[in-house]
Amino acid sequence: MTSPDEIRHKLMDLVQQRGPSKTICPSEVARQLGGETWRDLMPSVRAVGTQLVDEGKIVTLQKGNVVDPRQATGPIRYRLP
To answer: How many other CB atoms sit within 10 Å of the CB of residue 37?
Structure first.
């Protein structure tokens, strides 16, 4: 079982590696941590992403626009603020 702390660390690591003007997909985090069962991790990755947005550490984008992750349906991306 992957912990929220592991998800948090991997998510922040990936957005920092990408840099301030680039985005990552939540599925990148899930795939790196979950292997074959990465889809099972997606709700947890999005929940941790929402916490990081609340803390001001990342922003959520949809179609290139910053959105509230609680309101977003469908594909989203994360990046540094």
So the answer is: 10
Instruction: Quote the number of domains for the chain.
Output: 1
User: Whole domain around residue 31: which residue ranges?
Assistant: 4-79
Q: How many Å apart are CA 58 and CA 69, to the nearest integer?
A: 11
Q: Under a CB-based contact definition with an 8 Å cutoff, are residues 75 and 45 in contact?
A: no
- Give per-residue pLDDT as tens, 26-56: 999 999 999 999 999 999 999 999 999 999 9
- With a threshold of 0.90, does the pTM exceed it? yes
Residue 1 confidence class, pLDDT cut points 50, 70, 90: confident
Residue 27: how many other CB atoms lie within 10 Å: 15
CATH number of the domain to which 64 belongs = 1.10.10.10
